[in-house]
Amino acid sequence: MLQGIAASPGIAIGMARVTDRSRVAVVEHPVPPGDVDAEVERFIQAVGSVRDDLRLIKSQLEAERGPEHLYVLDTHLMILDDDMLSGQTVACIESACINAEGALKRTLVRYRQFFEAIEDEYLRERASDVEIVGERILRHLVGVTQEPLQEVEGKVIVIAHDLSPADVLQIDKNRVIGFVTDLGGKTSHSAILARAMEIPAIVGLETATSTLKSGDRIIIDGASGAVVVNPDDATFREYLGRKQYYEYCERELAKLRDLPAETVDGHRIALKGNVEFVEEVPSLKGHGGEGVGLFRTEMLFMNRGELPGEEEQFAAYLSMVRAMAPHPVSIRTLDVGGDKFVPDLNLDDELNPALGLRAIRLSLRNEETFRPQLRAILRASAFGQVRMFFPMISGVAEIRAVKRLVAEVKEELRAGGVPFDEKIKLGIMIEIPSAVLTADLLAGEVDFFSVGTNDLIQYTLAIDRTNEHLSHLYEPLHPAILRSLRQVVDAAHAAGIDACICGEMAGDPSCLPILLGLGFDELSMSPPSIPRVKQILRRCSLAEAKELVARALQLPTAGQVDSFLRGEISAHYSDSID
């Protein structure tokens, strides 16, 4: 029995097929000054070859399957076309007089160091996109080829050191029924694609390629991260039963897609999705999402050498609005800072970036970046239901400064005859204690609240959720968190505005009775989480949920709240699919 990171749910039973996806071994060596130009040209040609390869893969996939999920290849092409990766490598070849492989490896190391400092796991995983592109260039430089996964024969479970998004996109599910990798995280693009394509997957197992061999009979459980190697008959029968039950559950949950998200006593809650690319919309709609509750805009700004202009942003926002029509789209302005590498913002190193120049603080300090984003979002609002909201607001003075800037941008658009929604709703993220404590004051300034529970828990409990030694203290059901959520909802409703939640708690079915009882109007989550949350919701009574919350708020520890909640769910929703 091996244990990795659960990346994409589902159970696959079959033969292992180990495929070589190991990193290229690079030997750095000097080149004579007279050969530097030739070395630069060799690097440029390798970049061109990778660009041609990706474009060919994209065109083939688009012809075979349509445009869905191809956004990742566009991201990789953007990295290739950007001057940052290529420019730094060429500069290193010329200044250090070393071979192209060594110079590129130095550039990739610098990228890795930038991204390792990022606190947010989702954004930290974006470093893998740069490294995947870099590895493709290295393979061209050294002349190493790889076995195409689309040519794998039989029904097998692929075992690899790592898989690129292009590898995953080319998987034929009639041949490859799952995969396991040494590297990767749950929020890597390969893992995201596996979930979108419904391919069972386990990542970050570290020793998969050294422990497993082709021909091994294996079972992978993408929900738990377990890999069973050469199971005995009893274990095989057990997992075969689990597989059949899982597939039955998925069929039953799919039936909920078009049913209303309401309780047995008729109370509706909007269930929406957290997304970053328009290509995620089919998955969101397919899982019954009623709109986009959080459109992350960070990926428009990352993995590139220069900031996106207003037109590029407008095109991205407009695509999302049109794809989701007639459902609403809530767009969050740029949420990066000293711990999230974005070019051209002239950020200084900070001793504590989590409490530093980031999110709305950074946007207000860099109006030349903020104004084009505001203009692009406002312009997109002319074409559908758009809401705009702002991250890490700490108090009334901050949101008033933002609103003044929005008003100025609106006046610029009016003067230019550019249409936009004059009544566009403005909201704020509630994710730091000062926003909770002044929620009643903030509610009078905006049209909605959106609670980011990930950061709220971290800042309220003073817990670095990426610190493995403190992970046991990261407690969503801590009494301080529940009381904070109650205060936020009460303040919102007293002011007549909606209280939404877009953190991980929203997608946890076990938290649904608590969030329902607290009075949240909207939950936004990863699209695949929607059916299970909807299933619990449709079995809940609002009145009973309110009673449950009243009792939970009297308990003194997170452990007691969790135990109480599990008992209630077991007693009332034991027939729910999990």
Note down, in words, how this protein is organized.
- Helix 3 crosses helix 4 and helix 4 (100-116) runs antiparallel to helix 6.
- Strand 7 (217-221) and strand 8 form a beta hairpin.
- This protein is globular.
- It has 23 helices and 16 strands.
- It has three domains: 2-21 and 147-232, Phosphohistidine domain (Glucose Oxidase, domain 1, 3-Layer(bba) Sandwich); 33-142, PtsI, HPr-binding domain (Enzyme I, Chain A, domain 2), CATH 1.10.274.10; 263-572, TIM Barrel, CATH 3.20.20.60.
- The longest helix is centred in the N-terminal third of the chain and has 30 residues, at 36-65.
- By secondary structure, the protein is of the alpha/beta class.
- 46% of the residues lie in helices and 13% in strands.
- It has helices at 36-65, 71-81, 83-96, 100-116, 121-124, 127-142, 165-169, 189-196, 208-211, 233-254, 281-286, 310-324, 359-365, 367-380, 396-415, 433-437, 439-442, 453-461, 479-494, 512-518, 530-537, 542-552, 558-572, and strands at residues 2-3, 5-8, 11-18, 156-160, 176-181, 201-203, 217-221, 226-229, 270-275, 292-295, 329-332, 386-390, 425-430, 448-451, 498-501, 522-525.
